[in-house]
Amino acid sequence: MPIKIPKELPAFKVLSNENIFVMNIERAQTQDIRPLKIAILNLMPIKIQAENQLLRYLSNTPIQVEITLLQTKTYTSQNTPIEHLEKFYNYFDEVKNEKFDGLIITGAPVETLKFEDVAYWKELEEIFEWSRENVFSTLHICWGAQAALYYHYNIEKYPLDKKIFGVFSHKVNKINEDLTRGLDDIFYAPHSRHTTTLKEDIEKVKDLDILAESEEAGAFIIATRDKRQVFITGHLEYDRDTLMGEYIRDCSKGMEVAIPKNYFPNDNIDETPLVKWRGSANIVFGNWLNYCIYQNTPFELEKINKLY
Predict the structure, then answer these.
(1) Which of 141, 276, 281, 292 sits in a 20 to 30 Å window from 105, CA-based?
(2) Residue 192 is labelled as binding a ligand
(3) Which residue spans within 92-242 are E strands per DSSP?
(4) Which one, of 156, 147, 153, 149, lies nearest residue 72 by Cα?
(5) What distance in Å separates the CA atoms of residue 86 and residue 150, rounded to the nearest whole number?
(6) According to the UniProt entry, what is the EC number of this protein (predicted)?
(7) What is the pLDDT of residue 8?
(8) Cα–Cα distance list, 284 to 84, 93, 222, 237 (Å)
(9) By three-state DSSP, how is residue 91 classified?
């Protein structure tokens, strides 16, 4: 899906070099079609890396996607140049009167905190509530998924004895569902978290389905019956070396952290990690854009109806 982004955004050069079709704003304006409006609330600490990862999977199909990058006002990232944030990001207040076909809420390195203790929790609650009436389908990732399940359904997260860290196999529970269409019966995805959401808590909510899960990592793809709310507990968007970077970071802080499971060949950190999840990531993000949004979103965005 050609991404409509400024030429100056670092992702434009990165994705162009990967032969992924990105479109500058000037070219997009010459095409007489309505692009899908997708907002990304980027809560990750290294925002440019997260931008590149997500935009890669929102690309290369025949429909334009217009991206709006969002940051929180109540907390400013310490790991992204302020010039980048000022140039490319909006605050929620600047877009809250708009409607969007889709919204992605990323993970964040705050999972050991209680939700209410997170600096931007009140702002995030406002965004969750706003999304019910102003977004057709919202995709929540890792901590973003846990936070949304807690806000919308009062589903708690629980600390783990050991961090779920590595690349894990998953099985598809519902083959004919739109989000899992085309996935192998067994597929792989990265996880990196200290907390989990229990399957039995999710199953108590009649409107939620667990579409894919892992014996080691638990429920993975969760969605409402109408796919207006999607929750992914891992990181399909991660690059080859993202887990390696997290491992090196944690080791440098003196933390006790195990080598990511099923990631380095022979568990040798000097060997190049093998990517086992790229095909699955393309399928899931593509399914979300096509079946959950494009095939169902109103052409006139003001006609988006309120959720429950």
Answers:
(1) 276
(2) yes
(3) 100-105, 135-141, 158-172, 186-196, 208-214, 218-224, 229-232
(4) 147
(5) 31
(6) 2.3.1.31
(7) 77
(8) 29, 30, 12, 10
(9) strand
Which residues are part of the catalytic machinery?
Answer: 142, 235, 237
What single DSSP character describes residue 141?
Answer: E
79 token code pair: 């790991």
> Which two three-digit tokens encode residue 7?
């030429």
Burial class for 295, CB neighbours closer than 10 Å (0-12, 13-18, 19+): exposed
- How many residues in total does the chain contain? 308
φ/ψ (deg, to 5) at 102: -145, 155
Q: Give the pLDDT of residue 246.
A: 94
* Tokens 């390696």, located at residue: 244
Looking at residue 25, its pLDDT comes to: 52
- Which residues neighbour 63 within 8 Å (Cβ) at sequence distance 6 or greater? 1, 2, 33, 35, 36, 289, 294
Measure the CA–CA gap between 122 and 119, rounded to whole angstroms.
8
Q: Confirm whether residue 249 is marked as ligand binding.
A: yes
Identity of the amino acid at 124: L
Between CA 98 and CA 265 the distance in angstroms is 47
8-state DSSP, 261: B
Q: State yes or no: 59 annotated in a binding site.
A: no
Do 221 and 142 meet the contact criterion of CB atoms below 8 Å apart? no
**Mean pLDDT by groups of 10 residues along the chain of 308 residues:** 66 63 49 80 96 89 86 92 95 97 96 96 98 97 98 97 96 91 96 97 97 97 97 98 95 90 96 96 94 90 81
pLDDT, position 28: 45
If you search the block for the tokens 């004919």, which residue do you land on? 176
Domain 3-159+195-239+284-303 CATH class label? alpha beta
Q: What is residue 205's three-state secondary structure?
A: coil
Per-residue model confidence (pLDDT) at position 31? 40
| Element spanning 130, H or E | helix 121-134
Calpha distance 155→176 (Å, rounded): 26
pLDDT tens, 22-46?
555 554 444 446 789 999 999 999 9
Per-residue confidence (pLDDT) for residue 256, from 0 to 100: 84
